[in-house]
Amino acid sequence: MASLHWREWATDPEQLRRLDLLGKVPLFAGLSWRQLGKLLVKLFEKDYAPGETIFLEGEPGKALFIVLDGRVSIFHAGHGAEERVATLAPGAYFGELALIDDLPRSASARADVHSALLILYKSHFDDLIEGHSTIVIRVMGNLLKTLAGYVRAAHARGAGHVATLPEIATALEQGEKPLERPDR
Amino acid sequence: MNRVRPGDATKGAGPSRSARLTPPPASILWGVAIVITTLLVYVSRELVLLLILSAALAYLLSPLVRMAESAAIKRETAVTGLFITLVVTLLLAAYFLVPRLRVEVNALSGNKPSFTERLDEAIDWIQKEIIADYPAARRMFPEREARYDRLNAFIEHQTANLPNLASHLATIVLAGVLIPFFTYFLLRDSRRIVQFLMDRLPPAHIETSVAVWCEIDRIIGRYLRGLAMDGLVIGVAAASGLWVLGVNYPLLLGAFSGLANVVPYLGPILGGGVAMLIALIQFKSLAPLGKVLMLYLVIKLLDDVVIQPMTIGHSVHLHPLLLIASVIVGGHAFGLIGMIIAVPAVTVLQETTKLMLERRRYQAGLPDTHPRKGVPVQPFVC
Q1: B70 with A41: Cβ contact below 8 A
Q2: Minimal Cα–Cα distance from A79 to chain B, Å?
Q3: Which of B76, B103, B233, B321 is most buried per CB count within 10 Å?
Q4: In terms of CATH, what superfamily is A10-173?
Q5: How close is the nearest chain A Cα to the Cα of B221, in Å?
Q6: What is the DSSP code (8-state) at residue B4?
């Protein structure tokens, strides 16, 4: 009983909530509690006011964003008008391609309401996976599943024609449901 | 053609009030801010040095706090627990090591005859040894009286500033109290400070700012932790080697060598020099002196080839000339502490400038200075 009381006193409920949320992020599915803890201490947190831009299309991207609180919309500048392509709730993530390449963002992100985001920078991610083969296998596996889902979605949308590279790139950035398997 | 703006008609013919109050360009404001900050830092440099030392200590301890934080333990609890553990460890170390060190210090300082006389005697023995082997060398050495006077004058000159240490005693005691105090709060609140700054940064600059912060954090953290580990290994190796060679005060000399090692280039020379001086007085012969020299050369070689790549690694990418220049300038500006912090400070400056230039080049659409085939331009390192 005393040990339980001590554990409650020493544990940070906010960190526990973040750990719990990280555990539900599809990209980190399969990681142990300890591995998620290592990831958690590498994250930055930033608050965004309603309507505040998180990043703009065309900007260089070097970070993955995870929605901790609030709601975020992803916009894509189509033919002149801005088109909302996804709305993300707590637990969702976006900008994951920044962990792989250094190409500019092909969509914009904006906070709909007051939102808190966790930011994982590429070099921190690289530091984390360096020498941790289990983490690499799990995260890269999850990332590949996500990318495969995006490619299939792009292919299904353009039924009848083979998707070009720019179309696939656009689809990759628009992936509002990372683990959705549109072909099934 | 000038456009007529609303409200222009109501203004007089002379220079308007708003024109007179036009703020100066941002570059001038930045320049003034930098000059004022530099002056403030210079005026309060003792406090700044204490803060730098505290930050260095906080960097050394931060991985332990992060380890606790990753297990969802409250940061305050982790830092307090760490400090209690450190105090207990230091007390235990003091209980076991201080009496031995005190014996060595007392033996070193209290032995009669005086240090100059013993050194002179040792030099005399070595001269005799050389002259016995090479009689022609007799002409190279001065008479004993002349040498003794010169040696005495040299040691007096070198130790002339030692009484000033007593006047700095208050500062040393204050540092002993303030450094742990600052370190505790820096460790406890560093995340909050970063969070505070992050929330005040405009989103347009967030990625650049965090990239720069990541790079600074990575360089300083790796360098300081590596340096501490390197010093520890060198200290243990020197103490063990001197103990095996039978040199007096191995613990004291090992501790000194480990501490001196934090000063790039000069540290190993200083550590080895003091050990050779002690060996010279103790053995009054060239052969043991050669063994001590060999020991320090082997340690230096091992340090460069094995220990440093494992501890400090590739956290510092300074050209050797820039490295030496930064150590000299740091020494002139802030003394010993300046020599220690010069390398990470210049590395941080170099990496930050590189990042900002890369970012500017990327925004201006200029080609990468080091294009890699098939690899896109990378605006950030971090």
Answers
A1: yes
A2: 24
A3: B233
A4: Jelly Rolls (2.60.120.10)
A5: 13
A6: P
